[in-house]
Structure formats: structure tokens, C-alpha cells
Amino acid sequence: MKRAGVVGGGAWGTALAQVCARAGLETVLWAREREVVDGVNQAHENALFLPGVTLDSAIRATHDYVDLARSDLILAVSPAQHLRSTLEGLKPHLTPGLPVVLCAKGVEQGSLKLMTEVLAETAPQAAPAVLSGPSFAGEVARGLPTAVTLACPEEALGWALAGAIATQTFRPYLAQDMIGAEAGGAVKNVLAIACGIVEGRGLGRSAHAALITRGFAEMTRLAVALGAQPETLAGLCGLGDLVLTCSSPQSRNMSVGLALGRGETLDQALSGKLSVAEGVASAPAVRALAAAKGVEMPICQAVAALLAGEARVDEAIGGLLSRPLRDEH
Fold it and tell me: Mind listing the domains of the chain with CATH numbers?
């Protein structure tokens, strides 16, 4: 593999383009925004989404899908709710068997599909893989040590992909359970909003630790109901990503929760943010998916109710604390 196409010019897409370039791949970054394309090509910086990070001069940006046609692998990094339309545009340029690594974390509203299901419907000729794990875009782009899960059902292809994008500071661990990798990434964004609320409300570190632990139980229950292996969720794409996203205001999702916990409205919490907080869009889909599968997810349900205006912060907290006592496992 010599050529990588990265679809999505946000912070995470730009960081992954940097990873690919560092790994020695000829890298083309597709972005919707003209200022991102011009900034990457002329100033070697994505000032809109990842300011202050000097990008590898070998990265070439474009807003034309045809420039990705010669890629040996594609990293699809568009936000989850826009991935279907992005793949529709990319589909004519995907040759049979071309690896498409899905890097968006979420559940599609309406269809309640995971991203691998969206790919299978829009571009069935592609060979799917999932990249997920504890990774802040700015840290990855700057070359700080990061480890992630790369899930691919075809073991030989998975090793080829891991070898292609691995660098001294970006370490993919291989798995075959794509459902587990996807479910972990989707649910942890919703839980990060809840952790932000706990922090913003000043409820203490004990409550924060309890919420992460009980949230991990919810994440695992849903993933297993979807067909995942529980051990996948104990890895980087589940527990690892959950700990990171729920522990730092660098997380877009946790920062939204912090604002809500401090009394701001959702509109105020989202105001001025260019980057997408995937948990806001995924929360209603996660709640609906859990209901469809008969899975109890009280924390995610409470977050979805808050975001929909169906409950206030203190009501949601009180509802969780007044639930009947039960066995832990």
C-alpha cells in the first residue's frame, strides 16, 4: 500500500492524514471546505479545524473525489450523520475490494445503522475496516504516542492496513470484531456528555468514576446485543476510548456536557463550535437502538432525554439515583 485517501477535512481527518504521511504514504486529504483545501496546500495548516499544527508538506488536499481514485486505502472520517452522503459521492471511485477504514463514531439517525452497515448499503464493493480508540486529534497530529484498535474481519488485510499506517508514535492493535469497535465508539460519546454534566454540576470524582463504570456496563450490553464480543469492549476501542473521552474537556462531547451541567442550554453549549460533537446526534439513535434491542441503558436514555428537552439536569440525575437497587452484574 503506497497511496492513502482521507475523506473528511476536520480535525480528526487532518490528524489521520498526518499519520499516513508520516508512515510514508502518498496522502490525499479530501475536504468540503475551500479554505481547508487552500490552507493545507499553501500554508500546510488546517487553520479552521486544527490551528497551530504544522502539517507534513507531502499531504495534498482536494475537494474533488476523483483525486482519490488511485488510492490503495481510504480512511472515511466524515461525521457519522454525513457518512452516507459522503460515501455516495465517493462510490464511483471505489474499485472492488478497496479497503475503506471507517473512522467516524456514531449511530445513524433514522436507520439506526452502524457505520459498517451504512458502507455495506452504499458501497458494497469496498472491503470494510474500523479504526477506533483513545485519540485526541491534536495529540495525534503532533506525534504524541497513541494506540488504537483496527478491526478488520479479513486478518491478512487487517495486518496490511496496520502495517501501512503504523508509525513510531501511532500504534494500531488488530481485532476482527468490527461491531464491538463501532459500538464502543458510538456509545462512549453519549456517556462523555453525561460525565461532563457530572463535572459541570460539581458532583465529585466518586460520581464521575461510578458513571464511567456503569456506562461501560451499558456500552457492553448494547454491543453484545448487536453481536459483538465482550472482550472487544475491554480494549482500546471501548474502555480506553471511554476513559479518555470522559476525563478531559478536550473532548468535544464532554465539553458539551460541562456546559449543560453549568446551566447552559444545548444551543448555548454548541454555539461557536465548528467541530461536531458526535454524541449529540447519536444519543437519540442510541436510545432508539437500545429500545429496539431490549437493552437497558439508563444513563444514555437520560442524556437523550436531556438533549431532547424532555427532562432537566437535576431531574435526570435524580431519576438515575432513585432507580431500584440491583445486582452489579
Answer: 3-176 (3.40.50.720), 179-321 (1.10.1040.10)
| Residue spans of the chain under pLDDT 50 | none
Identity of residue 35: E
> Could you give the CA distance from residue 41 to residue 65 in angstroms, rounded to a whole number?
16
**What would you measure as the largest C-alpha separation in the chain, in angstroms?**
60
Residues marked as catalytic: 188
Q: Cβ(102)–Cβ(154) under 8 Å?
A: no
According to DSSP, the residues that pair with 175 across neighbouring strands are: 151
pLDDT attached to residue 251: 87
CB 212 within 8 Å of CB 195: yes
CB atoms within 10 A of CB 155: 10
Distance CA 187, CA 219 (A): 6
pLDDT at 7: 97
pTM of the full structure: 0.94
Cα(174)–Cα(133) distance, rounded to whole angstroms?
12
